[in-house]
Amino acid sequence: MEAPVTREEIENAPIKAKIRAGEEVVKQALEEHETDEVVIGFTGGKDSTLTAWLVKRVCEQEGFEKPRFMFVDHGQHFDEIEQYVEDIAAEWGFEVMVAKNEDLIEKAEKPGDKVAVEELSERNQREADRVGDYEEVPWLMDTEAGNHLLKTVPMNQLLENHGIKAVINGVRWDEHESRGNEEFYSPRNDPDHTRVHPILQFDEREVWDVTWHHMLPDTVEAFEKSGDYPETEEDLPNGLTKADLPISPKYWAGFRSLGSEVSTDKSDEIPAWLQDVENTKERAGRAQNKDDKEIMDKLRQLGYMIVPLFALGI
To answer: Of 77, 175, 297, 309, which is the most buried if we count CB atoms within 10 A?
Structure first.
């Protein structure tokens, strides 16, 4: 597939143009593939929510059936995130498919526990060897081996088992230097599929701008936006509550990037959209093991996809 716009044309374009470009990226992908061959990598974060909103708009405007969410369950999510995924899927009309490495998780009692590689399935043993010479691997997301076995391996199994040809992901150019050269359509192999990236062109501030000024009026009945961003639930109009909005509750609590519950801290005490996103690191509250570019590049070659995730940029 040929991208509808170039980076030079869209990176500094107005917000509405970026939204239209994202919708066109999605539309071309849905025209190219059958609905049951497409999934949305949904993590419950702001980026995957924006991505799902674009897909929702395109499907409803163009008459496409909605593809399914793919939720990669590494077993260490915030409870609020899991509930949020269920709620948004139900409200927006998406079915959820879960990818989970039960083989590794069921052999550990608590996050951080290490499991002997020889106790794992043959596939997990092969995949552990692809990452490094490990005798044990941890049930912990923010490590090289943990990321691969808890995210990439179950994701690839789901793609293989269901014949998935396209994965629509919420990654952005500005999110991490390893994403800086990503393309709107990125062919991958083992298994063969295409990664579709409709929000590359947005930066973190723009994600929040689109969320409050475009997504909410489009998805929340009678939502009215006036003045500055809300700081508390009491600032919402029309008697709305946080639960009414397609925004993860962890962002209200001060988190800017959502990793695992055991390795992610809030970056401030104020909501994410009120923080200094222009001058501070988005992933500052997360364990840093996989922020190293060399590791990220290696994981990408192995099929790693979701940044905050869970990440799977949030």
So the answer is: 309
